[in-house]
Fold this sequence. Notes:
By secondary structure, this protein is an alpha/beta fold. The chain has 2 domains: about 25-170 and about 310-395, Response regulator (Rossmann fold, 3-Layer(aba) Sandwich); about 170-305 and about 410-425, Response regulator (Rossmann fold), CATH 3.40.50. The chain has 14 helices and 16 strands.
Amino acid sequence: MEKKINSPAVLSTRRKFLATGAGTAFGAGLLASVNEANAQQSGTIPIGQMASLTGPLAVDGIEHKNGLEMACEEINAAGGILGKMLEPTTLDSKNQTAEEVSAAARLLIDRYGSHAIINGYNVGANQAEYDPIADAGIIYIHYNTSIGHHEAFQSDPERYTGIFMADPAEYYYGVGLPVMLASLRDQGLWKPDNNKIALVTGSLPYSTVISNAIRDTAPQYGFEVSFEEIVPVPTTEWGAVLNKVRAEQPAVIANTHFFPADLAQFQIQFAENPTNSLVYMQYGPLLKAFSEIAGEAARGVMSSSVIGILPDEIGNAFRDAYWARFGETAEADPGASTYSEMYHYAIAAALAGGTGEPGDYEQNRKIADNLRRFSFRAPFGTLRYAKEFNAALPYPTISPDASLAMPHLLYQIKDPAAAVPKKLIFPEPYNEVAFETPPWFT
């Protein structure tokens, strides 16, 4: 008999599993030890970042900047990297076009001499920034969540050896959704009226890749995509597409557009005349802006992430520290991404004997080798790079080992007015609460 998500046996197993990772997320102690054991140097290390400080994605970009600065502050307090202090510089990548991101990367290299670029995501660049960064030979770590990274890296692993994607590709979001839905169905937690999935797809490549993967994977788990429509980005008027969706009466509505304000409008308009459909939206509902705009209509919506802070000792400690630094209105989840990247890089560089400036290919290769060699326990799970992709892989969709991969986390909005509206419902052993039938179901 299959274990229920919140059975006593599974809860006990989860607590034991999570306890084993306690205290390993923060690398300041390790860095301090490495610094003490090596000859101290002086000087500074410029660290760069391209983040949307303005535009529709600034809600995350500001937190990416905050996470980087918080990590640099802590690392400097622990002695920097072998005595040298970090100096972060964040340039505005605005709407995240290829031109904007590439220009920012060149400026960080040519004017600021950045030894590494520690990034959140720039989903519209489509790897355009890779070549100027590869030419400089510096380390570049990002969360672009793009299968295009796999393709670029595998096209020339030698050239792109210092470019890392610190989360799984968006493709795995699409692969993972039918897995999650089947788990809820097969455990009797959800009894769908049919096997239909209605796909609403944002016009960006990120959203298209996810929708294509949902369509291709759904039949393996007893679902079928019965409706598809692509919508422009951004969009706030959802009436026409919702009328078509309602005519389908699908078991699941999957919206792969990801701007939180746009998705909040989708949910408000859906709630005016809902169907007995689970509503899954890509990423946006995880940000508090979604619940603040949608209000009670948000309750019951599901979303997922691979960089969500885990409800364990490490995750809770980071969230508390982040809120103490930036206030409880700050979004700790995106901040955790750049925070963790910075620590992983700092440890890898310290163990390699220091950082490498632009053009120092030999030293930066040593750091890249260390990033692949040593995993890092972050607030969102284990940051470990698959050598064939220079990217993280997800658990349980690809890797069956929760200790060696980043968990693909399924959340449900439980209380839109709470400081943390979302609660984790999948996968074991990370889940904290049970799935609930959404309130709009009749």
